[in-house]
Amino acid sequence: MTGITIDGIEIDRDFAAPPAAVFAAWTTPQHFARWFGGKDVQVPLDSLDFIAEPGRTWTARMVLPDGNTINWTGEFVEVVPHERLVFTITDRPAEPGRATIVVELAAIPGGTRMHFTQETPGFTPEQQHGVLAGWQSFIDELEQTAVA
After folding, report:
1. Separation between Cα atoms, residue 112 and residue 49, nearest integer Å
2. Backbone Cα Rg of the chain
3. 19-27 and 125-147 are packed helices; what angle lies between their axes, rounded to 10 degrees?
4. Mean per-residue pLDDT of the chain
5. pTM of this prediction?
6. Per residue in 53-99, pLDDT tens?
């Protein structure tokens, strides 16, 4: 299912790439910088501290088309190569709250099925729809990275 859930959002997507390639797109800084934020947003590699190991903090800076920036941070919680990635995320680094993201990958004929969930605690329905639309555009770009 792709849509709004009681706890947040979820996205199911199939990729014409093996789980190892999709996992690498999620966990390799050079790949993550290419797709995180979608096609019109830049994530300078020098702004990205992104080593996918449990317990490690990660940070990224998005540069929006208008020149404004968004600073992101979180922590890697679980990393199971080619199968599962759990990490937290926020665009308010100074505040303690973090949403949990879970990415589960499964091999299917011809590629990979990804199941993505993100918590959206305290979000309005409009904010949830915005988060869902944003991640869908990010994942469109992830697909280009994973399949390339």
Report:
1. 27
2. 14
3. 120
4. 95
5. 0.95
6. 999 999 999 999 999 999 999 999 999 999 999 999 999 999 989 99
Looking at domain 3-147, its CATH architecture is: 2-Layer Sandwich (3.30)
CB atoms within 10 A of CB 115: 16
pLDDT of 147 > 90? The answer is no
> In which residue are the tokens 């990979």 written?
112
